[in-house]
Amino acid sequence: MAAAEPKTVEKTTTRGGPKKPSQIKGLFEGLWVTLRALTSRSQVVQYPHVKEEPHQRARGVIGLLEENCTVCMLCARECPDWCIYIEGHKERREPRREGGKPRTVQVLDRFDIDFALCMYCGICVEVCPFDALHWSPEYEYSELEIRDLIHDKDRLGYWDTTKPPAPRLGYYKAAK
Amino acid sequence: MNWWAFVLRLLVIAALIPAAAYVLGYTFLKVLAHMQYRLGPMEAGRFHGVGQLLADGLKFLQKEDLVPDKADRPVFLFAPAVVLVGVVLVFMTIPFGPPPLNIVNLDSQLFVMLAASSLGTIGVLMAGWSSANKYSMMGGFRAAGQLLAYELPLILAAVGVVMQAGTLNLDGIVEAQSQFHLFGTAIPIPYVIPQIIGFVVFVIASQAELSQAPFDMPFAESELVAGFTTEYSGFRYLFFFLAEFASNFAFAAIGATLFLGGYWVPLVPEKALWIVGPIALAVKIGVLVFIFFWMRSTYPRLREDQLQRFAWKWLIPIALVNIGLTGVLKVVA
Predict the structure, then answer these.
(1) ipTM metric
(2) Which CATH number does the domain A61-167 belong to among 3.90.1150.10, 3.30.565.10, 3.30.70.3270, 3.40.50.10470?
(3) Are A46 and B39 in contact (CB < 8 Å)?
(4) Domain residue spans in chain A?
(5) In DSSP terms, which residues pair with B242 in a beta bridge?
(6) Domains: count for chain B
(7) Roughly how many angstroms between the first and final C-alpha of chain A, as a whole number?
(8) I want to staple B127 with a disulfide (CB 3.0 to 4.6 A). Which of A132, B142, B228, B229 is the partner?
């Protein structure tokens, strides 16, 4: 490996104010930037008076499509701050066709997400093998009590109805 | 002058200072906000947050007036008053219109005005020293060093105007501007054109005198908490707040009188100046104040040594050259 070349530090002096003409030009460019900001229309939304429209794929809240859930617990295990609580039990069901073995299915008893802990990383949505979890752009669910931020499966089921429609198959492949 | 007329004018000034501070403070909040792509206060007072500063002021009034244990009590309590008195004195010397509309009319009015404008330095130093707090003291020292350093270019820039007008009387300076024709122009032009160097030096120096960014080292919230105002609360802090924006108005008024023609407007008959004059002065002050706030919201803070170097190595020599040039042109023309 070649010996490290001595670092040549470009000498920039700031003593006594700008020296190069370009630096003085920069002073006026700064004024131009702020003047443009002043005269341009502000993008601020006056939230309580006007409801802000988030992007439809914004990460507002997580919804649960209960019928897809198999209580595999992958989401709860992958969650970095363990804010997902899942309980379930096995049930026997009739065999699919006559003479077959009776099936066992997982039934979901409890699926809570504690949004006081959730950091909206979206890992649970990513890992779910059966697409039971989805992002919804809804964001108005602040509470007066922190315990009320634990959303049960009914509430998560409601959030799932607010999710944006799924893109048609192959959409992202085509976009590439 | 009748004593009651004098008292009446004093009352007008006493009402004008909070009013000016209010309007300027609100303008500042809005200009700064929009220059940062924000909206600023929008709720208090129903219309675009016009009541915001009223709410802030009431909040300050109901807060406890704290004095630190180790503070030099009388000095600490008196310092905000000194700062505000300095501003009141400057307001008294502003000519708001043709002679009956000014409070005092002195031969050396500009001298008194600039002297009064530097009185606040003492109050700032008192506040910084008496607080018994390292941040306050460093803020006070920075303020003292800065205000002294920029006093000089400010006065030297004004000297150019005085030489050109040939008088220290502010009415005289305004009158001289109403009769000044550069290269025989049809309309008399204010001194901002012939004294452009002085004007630029004046604006920069008053920005430093007002301790506004990029010269806000005395406050320097990221380093010194709040500089010399760190230990103040309640209505004493309100005094500093009031003085800050009132002196903004005062320095803009000095600049407007010296360089923009004060209450005088071209093509307006002498008699109409009684009504038009104060309005014109207010507009000119507005323009200057906008420039102050514009610079304040654009530039980042300088370092202490850069500040001093800039004053002594650039502004003062430039102001001196301006005086020389003015002298030469005055003799030649």
Answers:
(1) 0.74
(2) 3.30.70.3270
(3) yes
(4) 61-167
(5) none
(6) 1
(7) 41
(8) B228
Token pair recorded at residue B66: 């704290």
Contacts with A37 from chain B: Cβ below 8 Å: 34-37
What pLDDT, on the 0 to 100 scale, is given for residue A125? 92
CB contact under 8 A, B35 and A37: yes
Is the Cβ pair B314, A42 closer than 8 Å? no
pLDDT digits (tens, 9 = 90+) for A103-123: 888 899 999 999 999 999 999
| pLDDT confidence band for A1 (50 / 70 / 90) | very low
Query: Does any domain span residue B50?
Result: no
B49 Cβ contact partners less than 8 Å away, ≥ 6 residues apart: B26, B29, B40, B41, B42, B43
Mean pLDDT of chain B: 85
Q: Is the pLDDT of residue B77 over 60?
A: yes
Model confidence at B312: pLDDT above 60 = yes
Which residue of chain B has the CA closest to A32? B298
Q: Contact A14/B306, CB-based, under 8 Å?
A: yes
User: Do the beta carbons of residue B256 and residue B247 sit within 8 Å?
Assistant: no
**What is residue A87's three-state secondary structure?**
strand
B125, B140 in Cβ contact below 8 A?
A: yes
Q: Identify whether the C-beta of residue B190 lies closer than 8 Å to the C-beta of residue B261.
A: yes
| Residue to test with chain B: of A19, A29, A34, A36, most B Cβ within 10 A | A34
Query: What is residue B184's predicted lDDT score, i.e. its pLDDT?
Result: 66
